[in-house]
Amino acid sequence: MNREHLLSQLSAHTGPFDIAIIGGGATGLGAAVDAASRGHTVVLIEQSDFAKGTSSRSTKLVHGGVRYLKQGNVSLVLEALRERGLLVRNAPHLVHSLPFVIPSYHWWEGPFYGIGMKLYDTLAGQLGLQPSRYLSREEMIALLPTLETDGLTGGVVYHDGQFDDARLAVHLARTAVDHGAIVLNHTRCSGLMKENGHIIGVKAECMEGGRQFEIRAKCVINATGVFVDSVRHMDDPQAETIVAPSQGVHLVLPREFLPGDSAIMIPKTDDGRVLFAVPWHGRVIIGTTDTPVHHISLEPRALPDEIAFLMQHAARYLTRHPHPSDVLSIYAGLRPLVKMKEKDGHSTTAALSRDHTILIADSGLITITGGKWTTYRRMAEDVIDHAEMLGGFGMRHCITQNLMIHGSATVLDPHDPLAVYGSDAAQIRALAAHEPEWAGKVHPRLDVTCAEVIFHTRHEMARTVEDVLARRSRSLLFDAQASMSAAPRVAALMATELHWTPQKTSHEVDHFQKLAIGYILEG
């Protein structure tokens, strides 16, 4: 996946594409995979990097949504459980089963949660993972030695999926390219092209060199997440906003806070939210919050109340209480929740729709928003079905239910840092063998090697230090301080590959370090 080659393909393309997609997060990339695998001509543009926004800031779970079951949204749970099973099968290098434990601190909670999780198992059907079961107090302590034991009566263990969100986004981009799509990061939509009131394409600008493109397309899809209203207003300045963004915040702690291979799920906190403590790549993620916000940003920041909420609840359920100095990273993401009619004059984002929504404007612009990572494939299928009907370029069968994601490999060592690359790991090992100095890590506290940075730059369209440290390697989330220290080494490696000037190299380091400061919790 070479950006310059794809730009050349775009320049050389004659006639309209079948589909142009704006937005390179889970929804847009999923749509590109679906459309390209059906045989359509596809171009996707992303203003920043793939999964820069919401799609790299999740709780790292592929799940049916236990709390939606409690809310009675059985159809959403059914769809998500089915998609979870398909994703485990189609991307085994990036998605795996993880045990989740629900602790009980009152006598009635064990049977209550146990019945709910048995229903959860049943809804999953043949695509289920492993059956849930009750745990005694002793079994709970053995499984989670750092769990608070005061008042603990037992618990329930069930299984859900865990994944690597930013890596999956990159592999979806590569899957789309494998099937003939043109996908471009750091390329923004600067406007929409119209004839007689109907959209016929998009105007695009390469953010690196300033090159301008007019991309004609039979159908244009707006898949920009929390930014969909901005694109809708390009089409119709009077369009009513449809997204009510909700912020979710996560803390990343050292693994000592939750040793072992099981996660904790707290089904109801003081304000009714679900809380997770999840082991992930040798760290522990604590999250998440659900806070209405009015300002939409590519770099949202955690609010003091959100941080206090997570720290307070981590201390309540873990024997070791975290302090600000323990936090390796803190990150925030915005959910594109779809507004609902208010019955009582007010609404909280916890009550807004988690289902996806597709709108078709009078101009023909298709907007898709809402949903979640777990159901990205189904969202893509739905929106491409709409695009085929609207664009008039033929209905073709969706094949993504059984389509293996780029890099798929089933024989993997889960403790191998290169396992998330799947079959591409062999190329990284070859780079390290060719240049022995590339086998070394970019920082002692990070697993990422110099060979991986070269691979990210040559084959995964990494164009900035942030692309490498925030998403290709997730180092910014693993340890924000260490990633800041690693930035000069990463920049030097990229500079050789991308022919940066010393000024450009210095700018890249400065930009990343200013960004990374926002991921450090000051105490």
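Next protein, fold it too.
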Amino acid sequence: MSANHSLTYLDNGTLKLGVDTTWGGAIVYLSVSGSGTNLINRYDAGRLVQQSYYGAGQYVNCGWGLNPVQGGDMYNNPSGIIEHYNTGELIYVKSRPLDWCLQNDATACIMENWYRLKDNTVKVTARFSHNESSMGLIRDQELPAIFTPSSLDRFTRYSGTDPFASGGITTNTPGYPNELHYQSEGWGTHLDAGGIGLGWYTPNVYYSTNYMYVGAGSTGEYGDRTAYSAPLYRFALAPGSVYQYEYYLIIGTAEDVRATAYHYNVRTASSWNFDFAGDREGWSLSSHADGSGPHNGIWSMNPPVGTSFVLVSPPVTIPASRNLVQIRLSNATGATSLTISWQRSGKQELHGGVFSNSVTIPIANDGQFATYTCDMSGVASWTGLIQSIKLSINPTIASSFSSFDIDWFRIRSEAGSAPVISNVEAEAPCGYFAVVSFNTDTAATARVEYGPDFAYGFHSPDNINLSCTHQVYLSGLQSGQTYHYRVRTREAGGHETVSSDHTFTTPVRVKVKQWEFEQAGNLEGWSFQHQVTGVVTGGALVLTSTGNDPYVWSPDLLSVIDPSRFRYIRIRLKNSTSDKVARFFFITDADPAWNAVKSIAFTISANDADYKEYAVDMAANSNWTGTIRRFRFDPFGTTGIMLIDWIQITD
């Protein structure tokens, strides 16, 4: 690992967690407190414990297409981060991942992670915003990717037919390439010869891919040899969609890991209302037939003529005691039936989207909304825990237009009542994220609507994992802003409660230095140093590059004496070139020489029509210490124009 890597830590006296703010906020260190023995492999940007997804296309230099990876790319370029905060109890990181197969190519996606420690467990909330324009295929996604040292070569799980009943477990050492494992309790381990190591639990996910890679023979946390696992669920990356899931990392024995899974033993809601514009609520579509997703409370699909398609639910764990399947829909595709398929616990399906259990119900082909109910109590294979749902449509209409619209979909029992909400609170530790907490009297879901007024306008992803205690993370906030919010929660079958309005105010961001470029001709102390000309006009510093290595200097003697607090250089700019990477260099009073060791690269959007704001965490470089004297901006690597609205150094 390069000396330029910077880690931020949590330590609760039982575990020590290290998050790398250079490699996209991925987990690079996890040990028993005080032991110094790292259970994470950090050989390169593709190892670690991190988010990774597979989208559209196929590149010529690897076996897949779009692959946003939290740590960086296959050339070991780091993804870097956009925002980071460590409260001492919670680490938040936000990054723009690189595409694994391409060279230093930032995707349009955003990854966010919230890390907390409790006893011997790390709880991670992972959020992925897919802002690419192309629709992906339904395929295996890693939830998450987990790499450990090769000494942790005992892979343990329960794969039997009676989950959560303390049945016997299976242990083996997988080979290379990948082996597929079925873990019907949702957990797995990487253990050493003594039966101790790192385990994981990803609720509602029951398959994993695993291997042992021997590599060139080097071992340990920086070794080429590694053990790998990734809990898998199949879904498609849809443009504009936001995906969120939770997972747990546990240090201990297989029994310790299993105890964590048994303690949480997550069950999910089984109702989806599609109330929010563009929000498919975790469902995948097998073809690009729905435009931009739900609108005005209806998910409208216009499949190509005669083209069959399927909808696949997010990962779920639904007791079969919920036996009434209901869907409100309008059908004008020519199809006269809808097939509902499911996978269930204890019955290992052939991997690859096989659903061996199904019922088919008749539906009208009249373009009118109607509610259809199927009582599953008499269906022999509707038993145990339902793990995935698929809806299949086979249009037959021969006209130029067909439509299939869903109002809502529910799997419920006869019992159930709306949750009672209590103890609603919000905490905003910094200017750009907040945590909303509340309780419900029955196990229920959690979602928060929020915004600058009573119209709200924003919402968190719907957490369908049922609980009585809830924490919802809000991000992308503005500093010094009062937000209105309300919580929305529903019990398993769909009975919903919405709270009254509440407010919180984010802290004001402290700016230790600021350049606004409001006065025409006033450079505010900035100077053009190499292959660049510029002028302040129209409220912006307009830079014109004349070569492939342009850079400008800030004023000298900035005297930023608390760089651990004032860690961000924030810049609002419009990039009119095709470049995707810029860089800040800095010098200190103690080390006034310009060099790449004291620099941070960050990704920028190419060919912008509008201004965008970027927050560059300079403390991700361990040399951001002492007294910061000056910094240098290298805007891009080709000729062209960039407009800078303002630059700030802030907390």
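About the second fold: The longest strand covers residues 433-451.
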